[in-house]
Write a structure and sequence with these properties.
Elements (H helix, E strand, L loop, with lengths): L1 H28 L1 H10 L7 H11 L17
Helix pairs in contact: 1-2, 1-3
Length: about 80
């Protein structure tokens, strides 16, 4: 009986993990996709710190302009 249930739920779990993983990747790469996912699933906003960290690791974060008093860091 247990083997039967595991054979049923294993593909469903694989599909669920794949969909969530692809949605996370899409939300990291595209802010528009992130907004769409958050509109559809409000709990997705709890992943914002993880998305921000992955964007930093990948170098996808927007470069911040140095403050006006940091004249030595400006071009």
């Amino acid at each position: 009986m247990f083997k039967f249930l595991s054979d049923i739920f294993k593909p469903l779990l694989t599909i669920l993990v794949t969909v969530i993983g692809l949605a996370f990747i899409a939300s990291v790469v595209s802010p528009k996709a992130d907004e769409m996912i958050e509109d559809w699933l409000p709990a997705w906003e709890m992943l914002e710190p993880a998305e921000r960290q992955v964007r930093d690791w990948l170098g996808l974060s927007p470069e911040t302009e140095p403050a006006w008093w940091h004249f030595w860091g400006r071009d």
